[in-house]
Write a structure and sequence with these properties.
Radius of gyration: 21 Å
Order of helices and strands: HHHHHHHHHHHHHH
Largest sheet: none
Mean pLDDT: 86
Structural class: mainly alpha
CATH superfamily of the largest domain: MFS general substrate transporter like domains
Helix content: over 70%
Number of helices: 14
Number of strands: 0
CATH architecture of the largest domain: Up-down Bundle
CATH topology of the largest domain: Growth Hormone, Chain: A
Strand content: under 5%
Low-confidence stretches: 7-13
């Protein structure tokens, strides 16, 4: 991952970050687009499970309660509990590196879902998908805040949030047709036409069902994109785009202190309650 300059390394003639943001407008656009792609991958990889429920049930001989655990508990148990600890780590460590590691983890686990042979193995892989995806949004929001000046942050954050509907839409467009129309034999022959004999021998492609290929197909691009992020996206200096007088602390407040402060803010409480209620509708 490319290192960023610290505020002390910038020229005294350079306008402050709260006026310009970090980097050139073109580069900021690239970073925001990259984070949007990460968030799209995030929602594709979590959403395809529901689309592929029926073929998975038939293939692995699972019951409805199995699918309930796999679609709910297995994913949510760590996705919901690790967000805050990961955010705390992001306050002290490289946020882009956390995003890159998280993207790699959940993408690889999505691929491995395509090779699951039982309820237990699928449960473990889904659990680890949740672990990885918990490391996406907390550091991404912090990175956006340092790349964009205060007057542009709401727009940048709303563009990033498009990953939710776009990811859900693309999951449906990709997973269903792949499951219905792509076979392992198709993949094997495709590799052969490219001269990729090494890929033909990796697994017994001819035995793979459509739902397995769907998991593999949506997971692999995330691994490749993580590599692109590592070499092209800089970690911005913390607080670079904050306005003058914004409080900065060498050591972040403890979790209890932050929680008490947030709970005193009615706006925060209402937003959290609204988001929780909205999640019931999907």
């Amino acid at each position: 991952m490319t290192d960023a300059a610290t505020p002390s390394q910038t020229s005294s003639s350079t306008p402050p970050g709260y006026i310009t943001g970090f980097g050139t407008p073109l580069y900021r656009g690239y970073v925001l687009s990259s984070l949007l792609v990460v968030y799209i991958f995030n929602f594709i990889d979590r959403s395809i499970f529901g689309i592929l429920t029926e073929p998975m049930k038939l293939s692995l001989q699972l019951e409805d309660w199995h699918m309930g655990l796999l679609g709910g508990l297995a994913f949510a148990i760590f996705y919901t509990t690790l967000g805050i600890p990961i955010a705390r780590i992001a306050e002290r460590r490289s946020r882009m590196m956390i995003i890159i590691i998280s993207l790699t983890l959940w993408s690889l686990m999505t691929v491995l879902c395509g090779f699951a042979t039982s309820f237990l193995t699928l449960f473990i892989f889904r659990l680890l998908v949740g672990v990885g995806e918990a490391g996406c949004t907390p550091p991404a929001q912090s990175v956006i805040a340092d790349y964009f000046k205060p007057t542009s942050r709401a727009t940048a954050a709303s563009i990033y949030a498009l990953g939710v509907p776009l990811g859900g839409m693309l999951a449906g467009l990709a997973a269903g047709p792949i499951n219905d129309y792509v076979t392992g034999e198709n993949v094997y022959n495709l590799f052969g036409s490219w001269g990729w004999t090494w890929a033909q021998g990796l697994v017994d492609w001819n035995s793979l069902e459509g739902w397995r290929i769907a998991f593999i197909a949506v997971g692999l691009p995330g691994v490749l994109f993580a590599l692109i992020l590592f070499f092209t996206v800089k970690e911005p200096p913390r607080g670079y785009s904050d306005p003058p007088g914004a409080p900065r602390k060498a050591v972040p407040d403890g979790f209890g202190t932050v929680l008490k402060d947030l709970m005193r803010k009615p706006t925060y409480v209402h937003v959290v309650a609204g988001a929780a209620i909205a999640s019931f509708a999907g």
